[in-house]
Write a structure and sequence with these properties.
Blueprint lengths: L16 H21 L2 H27 L4 H6 L14 H10 L1 H32 L3 H13 L8 H10 L7 H22 L4 H9 L4 H12 L1 H17 L2 H6 L8 H6 L10 H35 L2
Length: 312
C-alpha cells in the first residue's frame, strides 16, 4: 500500500523518506557542481581554453579582414585593418565569383555533400542495426573491416582509387557519392553500432507483433531512436566532405565538375602569381555554409558521439 503524502506541507514538517532521499540527492548534485565551479583550477582552465579558442578564431578573422584588401596589401600587411587605399569593398568577392564560376562549384559541392551524407546515414544506420541484431561470422568480419578502414591512410589507396573510379565512370557529382560512402562508412558504422546496442530488443519485438516487417521496424521504430547519432554523423561527414579537396581532385573530371575547394585553386595564375584578395573572399564564402550548419547542429554532436562510442 502506498504511503499517504499530504498535499500541503507546513514549515517544520518531516518529508516522507522517499521524497527526502530525492531532495538529499539533489542537494549533493548542486554541491558538487558548485565545488567544481569554485575550484581553484577552474579559473586556470577557463583562461587556457579561452586562449586556445582565440588561437583557432584568429585565422578566420584574418581571412575575413584580408578579403576586403587589395591583393598587393594582403601579403604586405596581413594583420592591418583595411582602411583607405587598402579597402576595396566587395570587389574581391565580385571578381572571385566571376573568375572561378562560384555558383556552379557551389552547386556541385552542395549536391555531393547532401547526397553523400544522406546515403552514408541511410546505409550505415541499416548496417549498424543489422550487425547488432544478427550475430554471425559475416557481420563480425564486416564490422571489423569498417573499424579497420578508419586507420588505413588515404595515401595507401590513392592510386587504385583513381584508377577504379575512372574505369567505373564515377568522375561526376553522382558517382563520387559512392566513393564517399566507402570512405565514410567506417566511422558511421562504428557509431551506429555502438548506439544500436542500447536499443531494447523488446521494442522491435513489439513492432513485429503489431505487424511491422523489418523495413517498417527500421523506419518507424529504430531510425527515430538513432536520431542523435544520425545528426552527429551528419555533422562530422558534412564538414569533411564539404571541405575535402584531395578526393574530388582525384576522382572528378575537373574539366566539367569543380567543387569549391578545387575552384578556389584556379585563382592561382602562371609563374606562381595568386590573386590573394579574391582567394580570401572565396574562402569566406566557402566557410559560411558549413559554419551555419554546424552552429544550428552542434548541440547534438557531443550527445551523439558519446552515445555511439560508449553505449552497449
Amino acid at each position: 500500500m502506498a504511503k499517504y503524502v499530504p498535499e500541503t506541507l507546513q514549515k517544520g514538517d518531516l518529508l516522507p523518506p522517499e521524497i527526502q532521499a530525492l531532495v538529499d540527492e539533489k542537494k549533493k548534485k548542486r554541491s558538487y557542481a558548485y565545488n567544481a565551479r569554485s575550484s581553484p583550477y577552474s579559473l586556470l582552465w577557463t583562461i587556457i581554453l579561452s586562449i586556445i579558442s582565440v588561437v583557432y578564431v584568429v585565422p578566420i578573422i584574418l581571412v575575413i579582414i584580408n578579403s576586403f584588401k587589395k591583393k598587393a596589401y594582403v601579403a604586405r600587411n596581413p594583420f592591418e585593418i583595411p582602411t583607405g587605399k587598402m579597402f576595396v569593398g566587395l570587389e574581391n568577392y565580385k571578381s572571385g565569383i566571376e573568375k572561378i564560376g562560384f555558383f556552379s562549384a557551389f552547386g556541385n559541392s552542395l549536391i555531393i555533400t547532401v547526397g553523400s551524407v544522406f546515403v552514408i546515414i541511410l546505409c550505415c544506420s541499416m548496417a549498424g542495426w543489422y550487425i547488432t541484431r544478427v550475430s554471425s561470422i559475416f557481420t563480425k568480419a564486416f564490422y571489423y573491416l569498417c573499424v579497420f578502414s578508419m586507420i588505413v591512410p588515404f595515401q595507401m589507396v590513392m592510386y587504385t582509387l583513381s584508377k577504379t573510379a575512372d574505369s567505373l565512370h564515377l568522375g561526376n557529382p553522382i558517382g563520387i557519392i559512392v566513393v564517399y560512402l566507402g570512405f565514410g562508412a567506417g566511422l558511421a558504422v562504428f557509431m551506429f553500432c555502438g548506439f544500436a546496442k542500447s536499443i531494447p530488443l523488446e521494442i522491435e519485438e513489439a513492432a513485429m507483433i503489431d505487424g511491422c516487417n523489418p523495413i517498417q521496424t527500421y523506419f518507424q521504430v529504430v531510425m527515430p531512436i538513432l536520431k542523435p547519432t544520425a545528426i552527429s554523423v551528419a555533422i562530422l561527414e558534412a564538414m569533411w566532405i564539404w571541405n575535402d579537396y584531395l578526393l574530388p581532385s582525384l576522382v572528378l573530371d575537373k574539366t566539367k565538375y569543380k567543387t569549391i575547394p578545387i575552384a578556389i585553386q584556379y585563382l592561382k595564375g602562371g609563374y606562381g602569381s595568386v590573386d590573394m584578395g579574391a582567394m580570401m573572399a572565396m574562402l569566406v564564402l566557402a566557410i559560411i555554409p558549413i559554419i551555419i550548419f554546424y552552429a544550428f547542429s552542434q548541440k547534438y554532436i557531443i550527445d551523439g558521439v558519446v552515445a555511439g562510442a560508449v553505449k552497449g
